[in-house]
Design the sequence.
């Protein structure tokens, strides 16, 4: 295995492990803010729920920080040539994420966790709002960084081969960033909602913390339904059209669409055969792919065979399966949250043990769906690290051997296993303790 491949493997592992935590905390930040808003109106059960979830938020935030730091170092150690080309661009958004968003979130998280009595109701609510804004602002700067790699704008190339930023506004208002951010944050809200719903269902099935679990379960299924719908329509549709417009080879790989056709069918199930450039055992909806991309049933859609093989994603089956599993899970999320919201509206959700079991067992799947969404985006962009500008093979560090990277990858594996064990022990300890057993007396405003 060449050094560039090991560089990619190491970054893929570390970024995948890291993103387990931000997607949870960004989704949870929204839910905690909603609970604190309900508490502001005198709902003490919501306030107790917010205190409980803040413990899990704080723990997950700490792990997100610890696992996020090595990623930025890898730009210099593993991807030096990429950093030389793009440092003047992505350095802007990464610095803004640290200076503006991360410190805003971290500073007010302290007040949210430890200074409730001193702040009073309105002050504590304001702290929850600022943590929510900091968390979601942080997500936007990171998405802007990735969006520039997907669709570079607002720059000019210098004689030394580096890119120079000529418009900060173009970088921050990149259409790819706006659409990708909305889709990404819908995914984060799904993760937070399913985790909250799953733990609420667990408590109800065990017959513990009943009143408090009912409160945050009711909130989470409504937010989860809204986020699940938004992730599909319109944000998922917008992002697919953006990929079709700017990365047509990646779009063809995602859809398993190998040959140009009029009235192209949407594939629901099938296995890509790279030898024959066809799908085995396909189940298709005629004309639907043409309609979704062009709003015309008979419009032509380019197939992968139209593009030179060196422009194809390097792992077409991985792109195809990642995209289809993500989309399939997204459909299941809508169905499950719609059922839960309907029965919550009918005030019978808490008696539906089968549905509670489904909610409890479903909590890992948003992590899988979000991860596969990013796998689709990143492997679909290949062979480019900056689309149309710099190939991935040209972006890795030349002076770091595959052996050195493999050794550090083993180190990351061992360290992250240890971190995962510590996190799970502490997470389960908080779950066993549960929310406060008795309501605290309301504080003066």
Sequence:
């Amino acid at each position: 295995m060449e050094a560039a491949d090991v560089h990619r493997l190491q970054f893929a592992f570390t970024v995948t492990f890291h993103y387990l935590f931000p997607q949870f905390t960004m989704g949870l930040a929204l839910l905690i803010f909603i609970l604190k808003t309900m508490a502001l109106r005198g709902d003490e059960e919501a306030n107790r729920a917010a205190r409980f979830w803040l413990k899990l938020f704080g723990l997950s935030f700490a792990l997100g920080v610890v696992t996020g730091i090595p990623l930025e170092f890898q730009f210099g150690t593993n991807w030096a040539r990429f950093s030389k080309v793009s440092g003047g661009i992505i350095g802007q958004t990464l610095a803004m994420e640290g200076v503006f968003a991360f410190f805003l979130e971290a500073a007010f998280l302290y007040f949210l966790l430890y200074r409730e009595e001193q702040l009073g109701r309105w002050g504590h609510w304001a702290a929850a709002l600022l943590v929510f804004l900091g968390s979601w602002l942080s997500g936007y700067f990171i998405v802007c960084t990735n969006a520039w790699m997907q669709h570079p704008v607002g720059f000019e190339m210098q004689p030394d081969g580096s890119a120079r930023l000529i418009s900060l506004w173009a970088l921050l208002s990149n259409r790819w960033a706006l659409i990708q951010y909305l889709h990404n944050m819908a995914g984060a809200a799904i993760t937070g909602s399913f985790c909250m719903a799953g733990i609420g269902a667990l408590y109800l099935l065990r017959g513990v913390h009943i009143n408090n679990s009912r409160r945050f379960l009711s909130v989470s299924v409504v937010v989860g339904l809204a986020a699940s719908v938004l992730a599909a329509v319109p944000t998922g549709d917008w992002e697919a059209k953006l990929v079709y417009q700017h990365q047509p080879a990646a779009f063809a790989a995602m859809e398993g669409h190998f040959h140009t056709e009029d009235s192209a069918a949407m594939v629901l199930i099938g296995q890509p055969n790279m030898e024959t450039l066809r799908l085995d055992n396909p189940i298709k909806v005629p004309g639907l792919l043409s309609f979704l991309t062009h709003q015309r049933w008979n419009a032509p859609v380019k197939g992968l065979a139209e593009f030179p093989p060196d422009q194809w994603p390097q792992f077409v089956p991985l792109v195809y399966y990642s995209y289809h599993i993500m989309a399939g899970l997204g459909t299941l999320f809508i169905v499950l949250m719609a059922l839960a919201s309907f029965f919550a509206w009918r005030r019978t959700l808490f008696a539906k043990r089968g549905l509670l079991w489904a909610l409890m067992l479903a909590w890992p799947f948003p992590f899988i769906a979000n991860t596969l969404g990013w796998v689709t985006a990143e492997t679909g962009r290949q062979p480019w690290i900056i689309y149309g500008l710099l190939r991935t093979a040209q972006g890795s560090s030349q002076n770091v051997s595959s052996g050195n990277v493999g050794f550090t990858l083993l180190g990351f594996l061992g360290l992250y296993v240890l971190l995962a064990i510590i996190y799970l022990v502490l997470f389960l300890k908080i779950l066993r303790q549960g929310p406060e057993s008795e309501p605290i007396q309301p504080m003066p405003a």
Remarks:
- Confidence is low (pLDDT under 50) at residues 440-445.
- Residues 3-260+302-433 form one domain.
